[in-house]
Design goal:
single chain, alpha/beta, seven-stranded mixed β-sheet, two-stranded antiparallel ribbon, 10 helices
């Protein structure tokens, strides 16, 4: 299109039938869209997965209450109902939001899958949960009940076999990711990742030789065994039914089955020896006894508070507060608990 200038000159205009003048609002609109997209991606919650194996639906619900026992609800969410726990049939599901120390910011979304039966028929339900993207963000928990500690060895064996049946048919990409994941877990400096955040020192990258019986049978996924329903302190007022039931589980072992300190120590030594082969952590939990379950689980999944330093301390002395972090235990430490335990025989016979 041609225009006549003020001095009679002609010039070509860039405005034609198929074009329109650019508005200043368009660059501003694009700028705001870019900013909003950036904020949205920055606020995207990290997704973590927790696979809870074992326990009946009631025990699983109580265990999840213990996991969130020290987590209060944000003020804006207090009127909202808790996420439902659908765990009555086959593979159950629920979720939790992991809050920072100020109970205001959400650090991560924890998707929790629950399975009570170790039948190979259910392996097809678990396989889709394990992908190259989710493997490094997943923690497996084997849930045991203090009501029947004599069945713990069999239950752990069944669940280990179940996990091997799940992992075996996975594709090569998943297996490569699992191998890298296990190498990373094996070479973590002992205790560094449980002192409030990931280690930033060069020591964390130093390869530490594995001791006898350590990581003999890695499963491809980090593992934690939780023995739930440990006793409350004697002499406490038992106002809640759960406290009464949890106390009775231990007292029944002492009164009806003649368990003494020797039997409780043997069970702990046996568990520690077996779990050492799989690089597993161990914790005794109960609704009525304060414990470090949330800190242990969250730190194992790489979830750390930005405001408060959380430390997971080992404890193998107090019967109701046992906690063995991953990569902490050894045959020597297991022997110290009580003399005469055949740690080599148990490890080789597993």
């Amino acid at each position: 299109m041609y225009e006549i200038g003020s001095k009679g000159r002609t010039r070509v205009s860039n405005i034609g039938p198929g074009s329109r003048p650019q508005s200043k609002a368009e660059p501003e609109k694009n700028l705001w869209s870019s900013l909003l997209d950036s904020v949205a991606s920055g606020k995207k919650l990290p997704e973590k997965n927790l696979l809870v194996l074992g326990g009946n639906p009631e025990l699983q619900r109580e265990f999840l209450e213990t996991l969130e026992s020290d987590t209060q609800t944000r003020p804006q969410d207090r009127r909202k109902k808790k996420p439902p726990i659908a765990n009555e049939f086959a593979l159950g599901y629920t979720y939790q939001h992991v809050l920072d120390a100020d109970q205001d910011d959400i650090l991560a979304r924890l998707s929790i899958f629950l399975l009570s039966e170790s039948s190979p028929a259910f392996s097809a339900l678990v396989k889709p949960l394990l992908t190259p993207k989710t493997i490094s963000e997943t923690l497996v928990i084997i849930l045991l009940d203090w009501a029947e500690p004599w069945s713990w060895a069999r239950q752990i064996r069944d669940w280990v076999r179940f996990l091997k049946g799940v992992v075996g048919p996975l594709d090569d990409d998943c297996k490569i990711t699992m191998e890298e994941n296990m190498k990373d877990w094996q070479q973590r400096r002992r205790g560094a990742q449980y002192e409030g955040g990931p280690s930033t020192t060069n020591d964390a990258s130093v390869n530490i030789p594995l001791g006898s019986g350590e990581w003999d049978e890695p499963l491809g996924l980090p593992l934690c065994v939780a023995c739930h329903g440990v006793r409350v302190f004697r002499g406490c007022i038992r106002s809640a039914l759960t406290q009464v039931l949890q106390t009775e589980k231990i007292e029944a072992l002492e009164k009806d089955h003649g368990w003494r300190e020797e039997e409780f120590d043997f069970s702990l030594q046996y568990l520690r020896t077996v779990l050492l082969k799989h690089g597993s952590s161990l914790i005794y939990t109960s609704l009525s006894v304060p414990n470090s379950l949330p800190t242990l689980i969250h730190s194992s999944l790489g979830i750390y508070s930005l405001l408060k330093r959380q430390t997971v301390k080992h404890n193998v002395i107090d019967r109701d507060k046992v906690l063995v972090p991953p990569n902490w235990d050894s045959w020597g430490k297991i022997r110290v608990l009580r003399e005469g335990f055949d740690v080599e025989g148990v490890s080789s016979g597993w």
